[in-house]
Amino acid sequence: AFAPMAASTLWSIGLSLAGSVLACVLAWLVGDRLFRRPIRRILATIDSWRAGDETARTGLVADGSELASLGAAIDEYMDGIAAGKAAWTESEEHRQLMLREMNHRIKNLMANVQAIANQTFRDGAGPGSLRAFGQRLSSMAAAHDLLVSGNWQSADLEATRAAFHKLVDEAAGARWHAKSQTSDWTVGEVFEHLTW
């Protein structure tokens, strides 16, 4: 009499166990897909960054789930860091270029000072030579100011003429007048006139 009930109970227990196992397997698969995989991708991406691979990304797209949104936010943050590093590197390269250029210009400036000193003191040093040397250095400083204001491209003729009028003597006057037909001078032309 109890046999059908026992069979039915065993059948119910078996179905319950099979359903529980199936529910656990499905929960594990869904949990793996929805939680463990995204978390592993996020952690793997962070580990790659720590190892020096700045191109690593999670590849997660913010689709409404919290973990996908977190992964997308991490990717965006890493993109910002990479862009900041690239901008810093470019800025540092530009700074190094500017330092090299400044060093080059300082050396050129010192060579010009040496040339002016050689020209001024070639016949011996005297009070007039020292005054001429000072005037030439002042004119060179004024030429430098003109060039800086012209972005090192050219200098206005009238401003240049005013800066150099003390240097132009009678022998150089003809050369000055011949050149004065143009309105702008190149950097080399300005420095050429410093040595008159």
Helix content: over 70%
Biggest sheet: strands side by side, in what order? 1-2
Tally the helices: what do you get?
6
Poorly predicted spans? 169-176
Major β-sheet profile: 2 strands, antiparallel
Secondary-structure element order, as H and E?
A: HHHEHHEH
Helix-strand makeup class: mainly alpha
Give the N-terminus to C-terminus distance in angstroms: 132 Å
Rg measurement, Å: 41 Å
* Beta-strand content estimate: under 5%
Shape descriptor reads rod-shaped
Mean pLDDT: 79
The total beta strand count reads 2
Question: What labels would you give this structure?
Answer:
196 residues; mainly alpha; 6 helices
Provide a descriptive summary of the structure in words.
By secondary structure, this protein is mostly helical. Helix content is 78%, strand content 2%. Strands 1-2 form a two-stranded antiparallel ribbon. Helix 1 (3-50) runs parallel beside helix 2 and helix 3 (127-149) runs antiparallel to helix 6 (187-194). The protein is rod-shaped and about 140 Å long. The relative contact order is 0.05.
Task: Explain briefly what this protein structure is.
The chain is an all-alpha fold and 196 residues long. It is built from 6 helices and 2 strands; from the N terminus they run H-H-H-E-H-H-E-H. Residues 169-176 have low confidence and may be disordered.
Walk me through the topology.
Blueprint: H1 3-50, H2 66-120, H3 127-149, E1 155-156, H4 157-164, H5 170-179, E2 184-185, H6 187-194
